[in-house]
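[stage:ingest] chain + small molecule (magnesium ion)
[stage:ingest] validated
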Amino acid sequence: MSRKAKPAPAIEGGHAPLSSLPGIGPQSAEKLAAHGLGRVSDLWFWLPRDYQDRTRLTPIHALRNGVAAQVEGRMLAVDTAFRARPMLKVLLGDERGSTVTLKFFHFRKQQADAFRQGGKVRAYGVPRPGQAGLEMAHPSYRVLGDGDAPLDELLEPVYPQIDGIGAALMRKIVSHALRSLPGDAALELLPVGFAHDMGLPGLRQALLYLHHPPADADVAALQSGRHPAQRRLALEEMLAHHLSLRRERVAMQRHAAAALPRKPGRVEQLLAALPFQLTGAQARVLAEVERDLEKPVPMLRLVQGDVGSGKTVVAALAALRAIDAGHQVALMAPTELLAEQHLASLRGWLEPLGVRIGWLAGKVTGKARAQVLAEVATGEVQLIIGTHALMQEGVEFADLALAIIDEQHRFGVQQRLALRDKGSGLVPHQLVMTATPIPRTLAMSAYADLDVSVIDELPAGRRPVQTVVISNARRDELIARIRAAIAEGRQAYWVCTLIEEQSESEVRIDAQAAETTFLQLQQAMPELRIALVHGRMKPQEKQAAMAAFKQGESDLLVSTTVIEVGVDVPNASLMIIENAERLGLAQLHQLRGRVGRGSVQSSCVLLYQPPLGKIARQRLDMLRHSNDGFLIAEKDLELRGPGELLGVRQTGLAQLRIADLMRDADLLPQVEQLASQLLRDAPENADAIIARWIGSALRYASA
Ligand code: ADP
Ligand code: MG
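[stage:predict] done
[stage:export] tokens:
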């Protein structure tokens, strides 16, 4: 039996503006507001990011490199040196003759004057090895008088830094704000007893504890975020994000969509014309999509399928269904390369059936752009394929009924929301496809607004890619391997990778590396037709090189990771990935997915630069042993955490304040259960939880 949640209580005092607190003038209030802190109650939830333990003293000799501690000692020497730049050094010593140096690079004269040789100082900081033993740079400190100075009774909270608001002021105003923290009954938004049943404290207790932990608190637990008081809040924060996604879904589905009937037409013609039969999984997912399309509410469906599982043809069939019903479809991909490839596949399948396809990307400009925009606006173009550009300004559709978004992990939620406004009156159905299989626990919270279909079967005859891991020292052996593959009429990829997250300068370095490798390989195998693709080439050049490779006009394609997603050349059977140790699991799996797309046995060589770190070895071993994207994703999650797996832009989850999806993953089932219960029994509490945790962000998003 589920317990009834109480209605959202009104919280007195918490609504007061921050300027009502002592020490907060209009300027400080503005700085706080920039961080979403507007009311007294916002400070209740502004949680420390760390704690300083000043409840005890550490003897100087017991200081450990890198471990924050509080020490006390006599000043043995005070040295104010104004040489190249000002520097204040205070040497502290204890009775045992142990010393530590306090170092200041910025200081005022009065500050320097307060340090007197022979006087006593208490300092808190992180000791690091320096020229003369351990040093603390910019410790917080107090010059002590002769009497005894009491130690703190509570751990000192360290709040996230806000420019212009000093640490002491922040602590002071939070303490003030906590005075108006109401009793649990007024504060609690979860069903009565829910937290208690999970062995977690009530909200009031948890907040008070986290802002002012007692001296005997488990600091290690607090610093690792695993304290029950933190878990109590993490539960509520994850719940808030989950609820807001579910709310978005509800809001989206309040709009009407075009109902697309399933009647015999060109879908059946295409199925008959394909050189293969759909796999059982493809057919099932297509049916799930078609059922959604028949309804007059917008479909919100994610199709997950491992690399090579055949998502594109499912998308093409769904598109055809909408076009047959007399509407328009848009298909968007995150890169031009990928969009172009979809264009080629869908032209091949759909143009023979008379479908009018248009192409729009950033590089389509001038007259060509004007023309395609006009054709989309009149409805002459039935299927428009392109990059994000499709969702940007200036693109008006005659009657957009279905938006297909490939490779979701590169798209932001905001972009998906923008779609809402693209249908004329009706909201388009949305089909999101991702090749990054996401572990179920994560999918549940990251995609709480989507229904999920999984293509969990590869086309028949596919053989798992054989993966080997070899050291760079054995690079030369690869020449023979490449020659052998090409002698059999196959093609090969050589992927040069330096760095995973690509900034502009890294793209340049990668391009250089690819060019160098390209020249070396050409020298080593002058009889081969070798092509080069990298991110610094002009789009036309890239496209031409890709097209030539696809048509078998080149044997070996040397590239950067630009080929990571979606590139489909079934005749390629060998892939070599350089510096594989630098890439994440999901990315390696994606890259490897470029081979093994036909029925021949394919292989992948992961080259690494020794020595191999422990995590890197685990990654490469995982790939050697498994071709299963879901398994690999689970492992990736374990090794890297969800932020990287999902991509930072993708979800609001990257902005979690206290929860950590990886660490707190065990709470997710309760989050889902709680969300359903609240939406059913106490929707006003659900709203209050969203407002409490992501209120300001949400207000911004819907503005
Ligand atoms: P992904 O799911 O990675 O996007 P694609 O849609 O690019 O995969 O499909 C990979 C390859 O498999 C393509 O060449 C595609 O034509 C082919 N394919 C798709 N479905 C089947 C099937 N049922 N049987 C055989 N080959 C298929
Ligand atoms: Mg694909």
